[in-house]
Structures are given as C-alpha cells and as structure tokens.
Amino acid sequence: MDIHRLEVFCKVVELKSFTKAAEASFLSQPTVSEHIRSLEEMLEERLVDRLGREALPTQAGRILYKYAKKIIRLRQETMQAMAAYRGEMTGHLALGASTIPGAYVLPQRIGAFKRLHPAIQITLSIGNSRTVADGVLAGDTEFGVVGARWSDPALEWREILDDELVLAVYPSHPFAREKAVEPARLLNEPMIIRERDSGTRRVVTQLLEKHLDLSRLQIVAEMGSTEAVRQGIKAEVGIAILSRRAVAEDIERGSLAAVDLADIRLSRPFYLITRKNRQPSPICSTFLAFLQQGSD
To answer: Model-level pTM?
Structure first.
C-alpha cells in the first residue's frame, strides 16, 4: 500500500474536497482522483462519496482513514528514530494549544528550540481547549497545552506553566480607578465571556461560582477568541476576565486596565495533555524536555 496515496486520501478526508487536497499536496486534481481510484481498486471498496461540493468518506473510508493516520505517523516516527540514531534531529512535530499558551507562550519556546534544531519543522494548531484535546485523541497532534482540565480516561494531564487572570476593563470604567473590587459588584456589570469549550471560560466559571450566583451575571456577549473579547472591552461592550498575558500590552499602553477581585486568587495552571499509552516520537520527547526546562 503506497503511503503517499494514503497521505493524499487523508487530505481529501480532512479538507472534504479533491480540489483543496490537490492544492495542499501540490498535485493536480486528476492526480488526486487517480490516487483515490487506485486505493479503491486495491481495497475493492468505495472510499469517498462526492456529495455536491463536498467529498465525504464512506464507512470503509472512515475505517481506512483511522489506520492510514497510524501508518503515516509510524513512518514519521521511524524516520525520526533512525535520524536520532545517527545523531541527527530532523523531521516534523505537530502540536496544539489553546489561545493563551498558543499565542503568548509557545511561539517564543518554539523559536528558541528551532535555533537549536533548525532542521525540525513544527506545526502549531490553535483552538479552544476541547478542540486541542480532540486533536491529541485523533493523533493529529502529539500533545497539547491547554488552560483547563476535565475527566477523560484517554488523556494524561500534567501541570506545566502558571497563568494569572485579571478583570480587564476599559479606561473610563469606574473599576479602572480601583485596585480591587468585591466579586458581588460584577453582578451589576455587563460581562463578556468566551465560548463554551474555552479553557478560560471553564476556569473563570470554577473560580467565580464559589462566590457568586452565576445565573445573575449580565452576559452581554459570548465571543470565540481572546482577541474578540479584547476588542469588545475596548469598544465598551462590557468587561471580562482574561489572562494577563493577553492584555499586558494594552495595560502598558493604557488602552485597558487590570483590576483584582477581592478574596479571589485569579490564577490557573496550563496543562500538558498527551494520549495515554502512546509512545512519543523522538522529536516530541526532545521538545517536551526543552519545554519543561523553560517552565522550571
């Protein structure tokens, strides 16, 4: 079974399009179609249905996709292991992260790691915590760094970094002139929150529910990214609790103000998540050791 054809097949499944798969693989669309046809002939099963503009896997295609990802990953790990045996460090590492570690922590660590190992290619996917965990479970990424933890028997969690949260308000807001406010005063303020699967939202809920009846909060907007929340605060849509890392430059420039909440320690750990019983690739092990050094 040709691994290159499996890679093309996976692209078709992931992008739901022969055209997009061709562009991503630097191939012509007829070549992509021929690769899929060859796989179907060899396996004697239809693998992909063309439904309008979408290309969706059949039941047989979903089974093949699961094993194709394993075959591709094993090939990558084999090449990395042989390179490591020769004293080389080369190959590709795919990792995922939620918004704050992905935007404000990992890029600097990746840059430092790349200076030591310039031949390694690193792909960083950023999404909410649940999306990152799904990527680790599916094998699309080797590990993730997220800001919330929940129960999942297939995942291993390890605290790796600390993050401070702050109540962020626009400069003309009355809270901006105070060092700290009582949590109960939030009930009288329009609040902006992150989407349901956000790690920040999960942690903020856990911190506040011990002090407030959250059903009484005046939620005026639910936004799908930290950047959207930042801009919403600046536009005076409402106020929000965010990572200090995300608003540090705004605070320095005076475009936002950070306020403490009395009697609440607004902090959380970031978690390294990996798939249980999965052996990390040599590159992954090296990067994780490097990342752990930087967090000690």
So the answer is: 0.66
**Residue at a domain's end among 88, 111, 126:** 88
Encoded tokens for 192: 């902006």
Residue 71: which domain range? Answer: 1-88
Query: Of 7, 72, 81, whose CA–CA distance to 281 is shortest?
Result: 81
Q: What SS3 string covers 237-293?
A: CCEEEEEHHHHHHHHHHCCCEEEEECCCCCEEEEEEEEECCCCCCHHHHHHHHHHHH
Counting the structural domains of the chain, the total is 2
Pull the structure tokens for residue 288. 């994780």
Give the Cα separation of 52 and 66 in Å (integer): 24
Residue 283 falls inside a structural domain = no
Q: How far apart are CA 44 and CA 289, in angstroms?
A: 45
Q: Assess if residue 287 is contained within a domain.
A: no
Lookup: tokens for 213: 């009846």
What's 19's domain CATH number? 1.10.10.10
CATH number at residue 174: 3.40.190.10
Q: Is the pLDDT of residue 296 over 60?
A: no
Q: φ and ψ at 16, to 5 degrees?
A: 55, 35
Chain segment 213-250, per-residue pLDDT in tens: 999 999 999 998 999 999 999 999 999 999 999 999 99
Q: Show which of 32, 54, 88 is a domain's final residue.
A: 88
Separation CA 94–CA 104 (nearest Å): 18
Token duo for residue 203: 């942690």
**Alpha helices of 86-182 — where are they, by DSSP H?**
99-100, 106-116, 129-138
Q: Is 125 a domain residue?
A: no
Instruction: Compute CA distances 147 → 138, 158, 173, 200, 217, whole Å.
Output: 20, 11, 28, 6, 23
Residue 212 lies in a domain: yes
